[in-house]
Write a structure and sequence with these properties.
Distance between the termini: 14 Å
Shape: globular
Structural class: mainly alpha
Radius of gyration: 16 Å
Number of helices: 4
Number of strands: 0
């Protein structure tokens, strides 16, 4: 792995750890089940997919700079595909997806999306 990809991995891991800590703290304060709703799997899977997507973007930045945005969107579709294949069926076992279940996927997804977008902008501006 190259230095920018390692930097991305470290920053993303720190950010996700902070958000997970806040997420779990809020669940604890409101007496909700802490580690239900596949929360750990959600954070781990979003981290792994974000790292894989960024690694691909970084490797393709020179040859396919003009296509990086489309590749990034494909990565986002991949994440949603993973959600609908693995998370959604578990969440819908009782008939509906609760707010807690939705938050357990959306919190890490949105954070990864923001960080990936920031790094994609840096890639497109040739600052990485």
């Amino acid at each position: 792995m190259s230095k920018p990809v390692i930097g991305f991995c470290i920053r993303l891991l720190v950010a996700l750890s902070v958000v997970l800590s806040i997420h779990v703290s809020i669940l604890y304060l409101y007496n909700f089940p802490i580690f239900n709703n596949l929360i750990i799997y959600s954070y781990v899977i979003n981290y792994v997919l974000a790292v894989l997507i960024f690694d691909v973007l970084y490797k393709l930045r020179i040859k396919y700079l003009d296509l990086l945005g489309f590749i990034y969107m494909g990565g986002s579709f991949l994440k949603f595909g993973i959600y609908f294949l693995f998370f959604n069926p578990v969440f819908k076992q009782n008939g509906t997806v609760s707010n807690l279940e939705a938050a357990s996927f959306l919190a890490p997804y949105l954070l990864c999306l923001i960080i990936e977008t920031f790094y994609l902008i840096k890639l497109l501006n040739n600052k990485l």
